[in-house]
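User: tokens in, sequence out, please.
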């Protein structure tokens, strides 16, 4: 681990799960590392499935005996998001990954946050 300057506490500019960025350091659960030279990546492992919900099948079975309109319950659709989105940071002497649950907007959110982290990293001064 690198020594921490005693100049004071830097404000956190960006928080990504359990990772935090200041203007010169990345703060991880197991230490503080220089931000200069860090590489940020995002991986989307989301799977989207469409299907008929169980309640639609049950209502179809119940109402098909009363009228044929019960078959319209089979037109109900349900969208499920499976998997996760990973945000990783790698630098000299450290590597850390945070995972977030899949959702309709989680991949876009993660890409936006990683773009902000890359911009902060590009502006970070070299560690002395």
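Assistant: Sequence out:
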């Amino acid at each position: 681990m690198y020594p921490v300057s005693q100049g004071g506490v830097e404000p956190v500019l960006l928080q990504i799960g359990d990772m935090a960025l200041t203007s010169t350091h990345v703060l991880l659960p197991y230490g503080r590392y220089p931000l200069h030279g860090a590489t940020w990546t995002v991986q989307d492992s989301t799977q989207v499935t469409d299907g008929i919900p169980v309640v639609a099948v049950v209502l179809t079975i119940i109402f098909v005996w009363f009228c044929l309109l019960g078959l319209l319950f089979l037109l109900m659709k349900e969208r499920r998001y499976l998997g996760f989105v990973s945000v990783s940071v790698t630098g000299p002497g450290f590597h850390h990954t945070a995972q977030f649950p899949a959702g309709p907007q989680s991949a876009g959110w993660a890409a936006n946050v990683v773009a902000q982290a890359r911009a902060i990293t590009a502006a970070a001064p070299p560690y002395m």
